[in-house]
Amino acid sequence: MSRHADLGLAQGWCALSALHGRIEAHIERALHAAHGLSVREFSLLDVLSEQHDGDGGHFRMNQLADTVVLSQSATTRLVSRLEERGLLRRYLCPDDRRGIYTDVTEQGHALLEAARPTHDTALKEALAAAESRPELAPLAAAVRALAPTRPAE
Asked: 83 — phi, psi (to 5°)?
């Protein structure tokens, strides 16, 4: 790869990192102000809310850490904080007593559903702001293009 290509790749990575940082900071402010949640807490509740009782329907702590892109120890601390707030509960895996599962409580589901519109609005606002910056506009468009299209009702 040529030096010019390396420079373009580095610039692209910097732009992607900047977009991520801007979006995360905007969502963080909105979630914290309205619901007392961080972006990481919202993400963890959101991921765990998608669990089901079928095969592979529950995350073990290491899978959860991979999914929310945190270290296993950071994930465990986050789960503990949310459990102390009554938003999650942990229990032993019925098939393997060494495994621990985590479920969202009714209170956690209620907070997640209340926070979801705030999250989605903040995300749209952050993407709109990014679209006004030439270096971020193509990335913001790519993020929008990733959203699944819904069939007409």
From this structure: -65, -40
- Count CB neighbours of 130 within 10 A: 22
CATH class for the region spanning 1-136: mainly alpha
CB 107 within 8 A of CB 37: no
Nearest to 123 by CA among 10, 16, 54, 26: 26
Question: Mean pLDDT throughout 32-38?
Answer: 98
* Secondary structure in 3-state letters for 58-105: CCEHHHHHHHHCCCHHHHHHHHHHHHHCCCEEEEECCCCCCCEEEEEC
CB 59 within 8 A of CB 51: yes
> Taking all residues of the chain, what is their mean pLDDT, rounded to a whole number?
90
